[in-house]
Amino acid sequence: MLKNKWAVSFMSLLTALTLSACNTQSETSEQHMDAGPEEKQESAHTHMDHSGSGEVPEGLAEAKAPAFKAGEQATINANHMDGMDGAEATIVGAYDTTVYSVTYTPVGGGNPVNNHKWVIHEELESPGDAPLKSGDKATLAADHMEGMKGAEATIDSAEETTVYMLDFTPTNGGEKVTNHKWVTESELSVN
Predict the structure, then answer these.
(1) Which helix (H) or strand (E) holds 94?
(2) Contacts 24+ apart (CB under 8 A), 8-13
(3) Is 149 a residue whose pLDDT tops 50?
(4) Rounded to an integer, what distance in angstroms lies between the CA atom of residue 191 and that of residue 182?
């Protein structure tokens, strides 16, 4: 009789744990499905290669009169990723180009990445003359994020400006980011 009570108690505990695990999985799935575009965008940026090699695309021209010169300090006023907004940055390079925000579906599948900032004209495959217009299609040669290189993108916006490569330490205590591509001149301010 004692043996049967123990078996019943054990089975009840096992059932309760199983149901609890199923409920947690269901809540997690619902939270992901209910995530707004900004949350989905943030999760896409978790696969971003925040640091770069420092190499620039062929044909990219150094800026003639940048607001910030290589070696100078600036504050980032952009939130392309966690810990970026408000971080102090060191300018690595400044370049005059056309910069685009783009929407694309990663090569190999996955959720579309909406309004990704930034890809420059020189990081598009055979783009023709700059600037492309909103709604134009282009193939990405940039490799900032997993599945980006080779993806077909739609141009969301275009702006002729100075873009910066920079080093910074995220405000959330993350690892130092080196040679980050790209931040526009309007996204930087004097410390």
Answers:
(1) strand 88-104
(2) none
(3) yes
(4) 19
Taking a C-beta distance cutoff of 8 angstroms, is the pair 158, 39 a contact?
A: no
Phi then psi for residue 115, to 5 deg, are 55, 45
Closest CA to 102 of 93, 114, 90, 120: 114
Give the length of the chain: 191
Integer Cα distance of 83 and 187 in angstroms? 14
Question: How far apart, in whole angstroms, are the C-alpha atoms of residue 106 and residue 115?
Answer: 13
SS3 156: strand
Buried b (16+ CB within 10 A) or exposed e, 7-32: eeeeeeeeeeeeeeeeeeeeeeeeee
Does 48 have pLDDT greater than 90? Answer: no
